[in-house]
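pinned: reference chain
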Amino acid sequence: MNFKAWFQCINGCSGRYDLTEIIYRCPTCDDLLEVIHDMDELKKRSAKEWKALFDDRYRKHEWPYGSSVWGKKELVCPNLDNDNIVSTYEGGSNLFYAERFGKQVGIDDLWVKQCGLSHTGSFKDIGMTVLVSMVKQMRSEGKNIRAVACASTGDTSAALAAYCAVAGIPAIVFLPKDKVTLTQLVQPITHGVMTISLDTDFDGCMELVKDLCMKNDIYLANSMNSLRIEGQKTISFELVQQFDWEVPDVVIVPGGNLGNVSALGKGFTMLKDLGLINKLPRLVCAQAEKANPLVRCFKNGYKDFENIQAEETLASAIQIGAPVSIKKAIRTLKAFDGIAEDATEEELANVAGRANRTGLLCCPHTAVALAVMEKLVKRGDIKKSERVIVISTANGLKFSEFLNNYHANKISGVESEFVYKPHELSADYDKVRDAIFQNLEG
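pinned: its structure tokens
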């Protein structure tokens, strides 16, 4: 079958552009592009046949289809030669049955999609594999791409650095100075990638990297490049496949630059159009109160949208006041009867403290989603019997300083409600035994 995909304007302007063309915005209206697939060709294969193919490939070891992204290659990037795929066996991340925490907040069927259980510790890998693979293909075809660059709040830079290191492609990352964790800073450095720390916030880094890429032979790797979205939409594919092709009722995702909520919507829509699922879930975008431009727009009925100056938040990866994918995100929420809601610093910190007592290990962005979920349950927007999925975007170990400060009660403006500290004792049997039983009985 002759599967095809191309770039096209999100506003429907005329013009199709090959996926190997270096283009980020519509030449007519200057809005974002998206990847469009030849759905008529894809529909020539039945839903039953697609399911059988995807189930047969899932987590197997035939290159490159064991990757949960490339196991859906026909629905992701059919134009790509397998020899140019750059993969770390991404996707297929665990679904954590959060039974204890669910009961605490009033949900019988709560799951956390652990996207942080990946090569670089965040969901960014599943988008970056597509983008870097396409760059490798373009370079193999003679395109003059000297390097790939991104602005980042930490996780995008880690993914770009790792995948470019695998491919042997030069990369450059721009990070806001003193606004990412040490772990996130170390990741691109250890891969030998040029790391530029700028005295600005993410939005400032984004403006600079866009300017750099537009004027030089450097390829832009941020989510305004819709190749990333093609990989990220496979989270939707994974969710329904892991539930034997059943669709959850509610999916909650943290939102910063808003590529992820757009990607999830695109994935579910594509599956429905192909007949693999027969309904759509309700999507919820969760933002930190200090960086909540989408929430403000949602609460005024989408009448207008304004960028804001994001304030410093514990959820540093979503500390974005000028989200690139805002138009896509609004379109997605409208199509999915969606909700945008925010969480305060105290709410996100304490929900992380409580959730971690039940076996989770939350990054602060996942905590934003959990705090928003709890609000929606209390309001009645989420029902006790509904199957709810929270997208965990990063591994909690990347934010150990946040967790350490929480348990030391050192987060400004936050009163830690679930502090836990090690018991420091002398190596004396009686003292150790007494401390243990005192703790068990207390």
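why pinned: The two ends are 66 Å apart (CA to CA). The first strand starts at residue 5 and ends at 9.
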